[in-house]
Amino acid sequence: MEKVTKKEKREIRKQEWEEKVNKEKKNNMLKKIGIWAGAIIVFSFVVWGLIAATDKPISETTTLNNLPSPKETDITIGSSSAKVILTEFADFQCPACADNYPAVKQVLATYGEKILFVYRNFPLPQHQNAKPAAYTGYAAFRQGKFYEMEDLLYENQKVWENETNPQAIFKSYAEKIGLDMRKYDQDVASKEVKQIIEDQTNEAQSLGINSTPTFFVNNEKVDISKGYDSFKEAIENALSEK
Amino acid sequence: MHLVKNRHLIPALVLSFLGFIDASYLTIVHYRDALPNCSILKGCDIVTTSALSTIGGIPIALFGALFYLALSFFAILIITHPHKTWVQLFSLTAYLGFLVSLFLFLLQIIVLRAICQYCIGSEIISFLIYLFAINMVRHVKKVERQKS
Fold first, then answer.
1. Which residues in chain B touch residue A94, judged by CB atoms under 8 angstroms apart?
2. Average pLDDT, stretch A63-67?
3. Residue ranges of B 74-113 with Cβ closer than 8 A to chain A
4. Residue B3: pLDDT above 70?
5. What is the predicted ipTM?
6. Closest CA of chain B from A236, distance in Å
7. What is the dihedral of CA A170, A147, A117, A210, to 10 degrees?
C-alpha cells in the first residue's frame, strides 16, 4: 500500500476545501437567480391576474331586463316605432368608443329606420373633458344635429381630449355643422342639460354598467369583439324574432 | 452581524408587494375606462376618477405601481446583494413615497372630501414601509459603527 505523505494529505484537504467553497458559491448564485426569477414570475402573475380579473367589467348576466325604454329626453336616431332598439352607453372621450364608432355608423347607414338607436351618455369621471363633450352633443341633439356632432367629436377626440379649455374647440364644431349659436351657447351652459347628462350617468351606474362603450340590442348585451358583424348578427336575430 | 435584519426587510418587501397589487389594480381599471369596485366606501370613485387623479393624463396610480415596484426591486437586491447603497436607495424611495402619500391623503380629506379604500390602503402601506425603512437605516448605521 502506498503511503500518503503529509504533503499529499495537505493537498487533498486543500482540494476538498476548495471544492466545497466552489460548490457553495455555485449554490449561492443559483439561489440568487432563483429569487429573482421567482420575483419576476410573481409580479408578472399579479399584473396578468389583475388584467384578467378586470377583463369582464359587466356582471356575468348579458341580459338587462330593467333597461328603461327611451324617454323624450334621450338622444335617439331612427324610427321611434322600430321594434329593435340599439342602446349605447358611451363617453365621447373614451378611446374604445371612438374606435367603435365606425361600426355604429355603418349600422345606422344599413338599418336606418328599421331600428331605433339610443345614445345614453355615460361620461366617465376620469375623462376630464367627457362632460363638456356630452353637453355639446346634447346641444346638437336639441337642434337635430346629434349625428353630425358625434362625427366631429369622435373623429377629433385626440385633438380635444387633453385640452384644458375644450369649449372653444366644441364651439367651432357647432359653427361648422351650422347650429344656431345662440341656442347652442344657452344649451351647453344650461342647468337642464347638465341635469339630463347627470341623470343618464346615474341611470347607467344604477344599471351596473361600468365600462364604455356598452351596447344592447333590446335587452341583450352585444359582445362587440367582432366589430360591425357583432351588431349585424344581434340586430338580424332581433329583427327575425318579431 | 447582518447588514439588515430580516424582521425589517421581509415585512417591507411584503408590504411593497401588496402596494404594488393595489396600485396596479387602480392603474388597470383607469386604462380600461372602467370604474373601480367601490363597494365598501362611498366616494372612492370620486377620488379615483377626479381630475386630480392624473398628472398630464397619466394616472397617479401608475406612479404608485412604479414606486412599489422600485421598492420591491431594492428590497430583493438587499437580499441577494447586501450592500449599504441598496438600503439607502430603498429608504430614500420610501421617504419620498411617504411624503407623496401624506400629500395625497390631505388632498383627499381637504379638497375632495372623499375617501377611497384603495388609496387609503396604499397610504397606510407606504407609512408602514417608511417605518421599516427608518429601522433598516438605523441598523445599518449600528453595524457600520461596530465595524469601525
1. 33
2. 77
3. 76, 79-81
4. yes
5. 0.82
6. 29
7. -20
Residue-range definition of the domain harbouring residue B49: 6-147
Residue in B20, B32, B76 closest to A46 by CB: B20
Q: Report the pLDDT value the prediction gives residue A59, as an integer from 0 to 100.
A: 46
Domain contains B1: no
| pLDDT one-digit tens code per residue, A136-172 | 999 999 999 999 999 999 999 999 988 888 999 999 9
Asked if residue B72 is part of any domain, the answer here is yes
Backbone φ and ψ of B25, nearest 5°: -60, -50
* Cβ burial, residue A167 (10 Å; 0-12/13-18/19+): middle
* CATH label of the domain that carries residue B124: 1.20.1440.130
Quote the CA–CA distance of A153 and B25 in Å, as a whole number: 30
Compute the mean pLDDT over every residue in chain B, rounded to the nearest whole number. 85
Match domain A75-241 to its CATH number in 3.40.640.10, 3.40.50.2300, 3.40.30.10, 3.40.50.620. 3.40.30.10
* Closest CA–CA distance from residue B107 to any residue of chain A (Å): 17
Domain count, chain B: 1
pLDDT of A61 strictly over 70? no
Helix (H) or strand (E) holding B92: helix B84-106
